[in-house]
Amino acid sequence: MATIVGAITTSHVPAIGGAIAKNKQQDPYWKPSFFDGFPVAHQWLDKVRPDVAVVIYNDHGLNFFLDKMPTFAVGAAPEYCNADEGWGIPALPPHRGDLDLSWHLIESLIAEEFDLTTCQEMLIDHAFAIPMELLWPGPAPCPVRTVPVCINTVQFPLPTPARCFKLGAAIGRAIEFWDNDARVVIVGTGGLSHQLDGQRAGFLNKEFDLLFMDKLIDDPLWVTRYSIPDLVELTGTQGVELLMWLTARAALPGGVNKVHSNYHIPISNTAAALMVLESV
Fold it and tell me: Could you give the CA distance from residue 247 to residue 244 in angstroms, rounded to a whole number?
């Protein structure tokens, strides 16, 4: 059976892609506050050697728009091409898919009564491409196969934190029963607190962000007590992207060890953060 080695959660701010494209990793604004957080993640990935990454993220209008917005969508394609919106990282080589795991996840999740959109063709935007470039940098193709899992954080009504936690737990169960000896890492991308528009544009909540990160380790169900309006109030309109972090953590079936975390405020009016959690 497959093994879940752990989870990595990280921000996907488009400006990060711009910094990578312009080789600004050593820039004083970026290096100590953000990029210096990733060598530990690289070392951990070298140690656990994942074969597949299940990437939980939110689409920004590339595949789905307000007229057609699935609550949950799973990719089932042989490869995923980056077609970003033009203000993040430039287009990258395609990411390899894992059709066997994709269909196993789809069948398992539907059996657990999750209604999914199955995507046999799927483009990936900065929410997928930037975290993968941060975790596996360099000109060589990404060494892991991928399965995209997309959660709606754009068109209301959004799935509740409790529903996303259940989705993550179901993903974890499905992977554990996948008849394959692959090693799987869960990647959750987005947030943390930020609001890009409206009267509260620029809103950040460091206190809640750090509490949320702390609770993810030993008490991830804590955040499920909040409604979506609660989270919008606490983290900003786009801060609900923390649902991807919660889903990724829920996919780890047992306890976790925190290998590393990093938090920086602000990057492009967003609280940018990183966590590496190892399954125990």
Answer: 5
Q: Contact, 271 vs 255, CB < 8 A?
A: no
Separation between Cα atoms, residue 96 and residue 117, nearest integer Å: 20
CA 50, CA 185: separation in Å to the nearest integer? 6
Sign, CA dihedral 258-167-81-16, equals: negative
Query: Model pTM greater than 0.90?
Result: yes
HSE of 93 in the Cβ direction (CA atoms, 13 Å)? 10
What distance separates the 2 farthest-apart alpha carbons in the chain?
Answer: 51
Which pLDDT does position 88 carry in this prediction? 61
Q: Which fold has domain 3-279?
A: Protocatechuate 4,5-dioxygenase; Chain B (3.40.830)
The domain ranges of the chain are 3-279
CB of 39 closer than 8 Å to CB of 84 = no
Dihedral sign, CA of 94, 100, 106, 112?
Answer: negative
- Residue 77 makes CB contacts below 8 A (sequence gap 6+) with 97, 99, 102, 119, 120, 121, 122
The pLDDT value given to residue 31: 81
pLDDT at 61: 81
Q: Name the average pLDDT for the chain.
A: 92
Residues of the chain under the 50 pLDDT cut? none
**Which residues on neighbouring strands pair with residue 273, listed in sequence order?**
263
Query: Which residues are catalytic, by number?
Result: 126, 194
Give the pLDDT of residue 133: 92
Question: Would you state the pLDDT for residue 62?
Answer: 83
Provide the pLDDT for residue 85.
Answer: 57
